[in-house]
Amino acid sequence: MRSWQFYKTDNIEPRGWLYRQLRLQAQGLCGNLDKVWPDVRDSAWIGGDRDGWERVPYWLDGFIPLAYLLRDKDMIARAEAYINAILDRQQPDGWICPCAEEDRASYDTWVVALIAKVLTVYYDCSGDERIPDAVYRLLKNYYALVRDGTIHLFDWGQYRWFELFIALNALYERRPEPWMTDLARMMKEQGTDYTQLTSRWLRPLNQWTLDTHIVNIAMMLKAEAVSCDLLGMPYTDIAQTLHDILTRHHGTAVGSFTGDECLSGVSPIQGTELCAVVEQMYSYEWLFACTGDTKWLERLETLAFNALPAAISEDMWTHQYVQMVNQIACQVFPGKSLFRTNNHEAHLFGLEPNFGCCTANFGQGWPKFALSAFFHQGDRVISALPVPCRLQTEELSVTLDTEYPFDTTLTYTVTAHKDFQLDVRLPQEAHSVTVNGQPEAQTHLTFPFHAGETRTVTIAFALTPQFMPYANGLHSVRYGNLVMALPIDTEKQMHEYERDGVERKYPYCDYELLPTSDWSVGFADNTLSVQTHPVGDIPFSQSEPPVTVKARLHPIDWGYEDGYESVCAKAPHGVTPLGEAREHTLIPYGCAKLRMTVLPFTE
Q1: Any bridge partners for residue 416, and if so which?
Q2: pLDDT reported for residue 2
Q3: Which of 91, 83, 146 is nearest to 115 (CA)?
Q4: 103 phi and psi angles, rounded to 5 deg
Q5: 257 DSSP β-pair partners
Q6: Can you tell me the distance from the alpha carbon of 533 to that of 488, in angstroms, rounded to the nearest whole number?
Q7: Spans in the chain with pLDDT lower than 70
């Protein structure tokens, strides 16, 4: 049912702010984990004695497309070295994971799906002709082990069964064989049916369960879309139904769901795990590719422009395990953790706060977002995410120059070597659209091009800042798909130390963030005004935000959450003004590491 096809990495060239964001990532933690983090540097996947499960595959899943998008020869060589080491250790029967044969039955084989996906990503990037055969032998062996009962899905594999379909679909497109549909059926039969779990999602529990684990759920949203073809089942858009339930009971102002580490309700002081953000983005990318429904692109933008940059430091050397929508401090809790199942340091910025999965996994967010800028379908190309980049194939070239989402002008320079149609999707809140200066009523535009033609198309539109209702009488401010927040001035406290043989030192040490400005405010009225500014070297910069919104705020008695001195109450104690209203500057949520995002109107 694939509606749109992804392009290869050599067809996509990031430009402008998107290129700078990817380059920051390459210069930061994701681009250097193989040098500084033992679980990648000394992994069992390459013959070492450290982690032999998800961490190297997680890291490669982002590092590989990052290296190829940037055309970085050193990074490409390092990625190839890891792939070579993994392929060199593939067993004669096809098994590839670093565990002894006698341990296969107890090895959680969700990582079989993960490494198969990574190899598929690597093939799309490199064209390395060793990969299709390696994936074929890996999956054929996995099929035999599952068929014979040697392996059964359990734990993570049982809850992430659909992840195998990324590689299995690609393999089936190249060389279809009957066993592949048999394997698809067995994955479905042994895997978890999330439609039977929704009663568990209606209220949060202070209990760790796979049923409510936020990363499982973020991955799950794409399950029907990626599996229905091989299963021979109709597509029903169950993702929308499940998305609605999750949004109602656990949604945030930035499009994510709370999960610290399991579903945590609508309180703006509960956390959202960074792994869940990038996996939810990946689900939306596949949901659009499979269905062609642009609602998933709107949701993808909201996550990418807000939740993703908010949880990673500006230099991309440190990250949070969980972020809070109203986050007035990131300090170690001296007593009981605020989070339902995460520890007392999960919201610090560091190398591996709480747990190292996000350390390895967050790197897939920006590269896969960039690869979703354009899709193709026959003689149609869609500019799905109007961010600055160039699409180059033998048949056409499309260059998009823009500062979107921080600005509202798109300039396409197109050269056609064959007839094709360019579709352009604008954000759903766009209005007052013009094309080359002429008014246009639509927000999904189409432009036919003929072979031999070169043409520039300039699209301009307007966005209006607006208040969005949230739980408990609170509101956020949105400007298109940017959520705006009140930034809190911050004092950083740096901590360098070693724990469990892992060194934290600058720039990948831990940081506590302490507030140094007032945050106890509410909206005085509905007056909002927008200012745009140049996009700097750091696109999501708190000191130089690319767009700001002026709002009038009153001081109020907000108060602290009971038992804590560094967490605001989930809802203010009172909304009566305690002083005169004054103008404050809101900045993009992704720019503000400490922030108040959902506020009340004062009485």
Answers
A1: 396
A2: 78
A3: 83
A4: -100, 0
A5: 251
A6: 20
A7: none
